[in-house]
Amino acid sequence: MATHTGRLTAEATARTSVSVHQLNRSFGDHQVLNGLDLTIHADEFVAILGRSGSGKSTLLRAIAGLDHDVTGSGAIDTPDSVSVVFQDARLLPWARVLDNVILGLGGPDTTTRGIEALAEVGLAGRERAWPTELSGGEQQRVALARSLVRAPELLLADEPFGALDALTRIRMHDLLRTLCVRHRPAVLLVTHDVDEAIDLADRVVVLDQGRLAADITVRLGADRDHADPEFGRLRAELLGHLGVRIEHAA
Ligand SMILES: Nc1ncnc2c1ncn2[C@@H]1O[C@H](COP(=O)(O)OP(=O)(O)OP(=O)(O)O)[C@@H](O)[C@H]1O
Q1: Which pLDDT does position 13 carry in this prediction?
Q2: Is residue 163 assigned to a domain?
Q3: Nearest one of 190, 160, 193, 163 to 175, comparing CA atoms
Q4: Transmembrane residues, as ranges (predicted)?
Q5: Ligand 1 centroid – CA 55 distance (Å)
Q6: Quick check: 85 and 152 in contact, CB under 8 A?
Q7: Residue 206 belongs to some domain of the structure
Q8: Radius of gyration of the chain (CA)
Q9: Is residue 17 lining ligand 1, measured as CB closer than 6 Å?
Q10: Per-residue pLDDT for 39 more than 70?
């Protein structure tokens, strides 16, 4: 059975946020992750691309410790505080927005921290709204605030913007970028969207049948222009790893 091998030492945490070693996961006879190794450094933003069924969510769930329905082996080290954001915001419909953000948090200043987190994601004044009164993008903002208020060292995000329209998605990219600069968690983002991966990540890994098919550092500045030739080169390289060929016009 796979194990979470305990916590990283303080010295190692300074450099490494997540360490996955020789990870195997199977659903019955179907082996989904095959001897996978991955290290994510503290403050690093890593995006995972891969075709449908390549094992992206299985990897994220394993790192989150949410994979009780699979068998496997290998070692995973994570920091103490980990937050997970999914494609659906998973808000409690019977709790107001602020209560969703601070639910389960202890401490005397919990309400203030919750209000501040909502302001950070652009939802000041919506504390007493019900989740059903918010748009999909606003609900994802609440989910981000719920993660942020816990000050995670590691943020795991499984297609968090997958259900949003294109414009809201771009706004959420800006927001996530800003929050990452301010709070500096390590991030592991699962996405189907190559441009989203290049827009946000320091490094993009590609999964293929549960193995790492590519591990590419994004050498672009903070303002990422889709028209930049390097952006286009990376896009073509990543699409190539995903089995998509781009024909360039002569
Ligand atoms: N609970 C489960 N029971 C059985 N098989 C599962 C289960 N969850 C996932 N699988 C299988 O494991 C494989 C990998 O699934 P996973 O969700 O990790 O892929 P993915 O890369 O995230 O795919 P997608 O991009 O479509 O979300 C798939 O073949 C899937 O059918």
Answers
A1: 46
A2: no
A3: 160
A4: none
A5: 6
A6: no
A7: no
A8: 18
A9: no
A10: yes
Q: How far apart are CA 123 and CA 125, in angstroms?
A: 6
Number of domains in the chain: 1
Atom 31 (ligand 1): residue with closest C-alpha?
53
pLDDT at 244: 82
Mutation choice for ligand 1 from 27, 31, 49, 188, CB with most ligand atoms inside 8 A: 27
Structural domain including 131 reads 89-150
Please give the Cα distance from 232 to 21 (Å, whole number). 32
Whether residue 236 is contained in a domain is answered as: no
Flag whether 231 is in a domain: no
Chain centroid, CA 131 distance in Å:
22
Q: Is 32 in the pocket of ligand 1 (CB under 6 A)?
A: yes
| Ligand 1 site, residue 56, Cβ cutoff 6 A | yes
Tell me if 132 CB under 6 Å of ligand 1: no
pLDDT in tens, 205-235: 999 999 999 999 999 988 888 999 999 999 9
Residue 12 scores a pLDDT above 80 = no
The pLDDT of residue 4 is 52
Tell me the pLDDT band of 104, cut-offs 50, 70 and 90. Answer: confident
Mutation probe of ligand 1 site: the residue of 25, 34, 54 with most atoms within 8 A of C-beta: 54
ipTM attached to this prediction: 0.97
- Measured in Å, residue 116 CA sits from the centre of ligand 1 at 37
How much is the pTM? 0.90
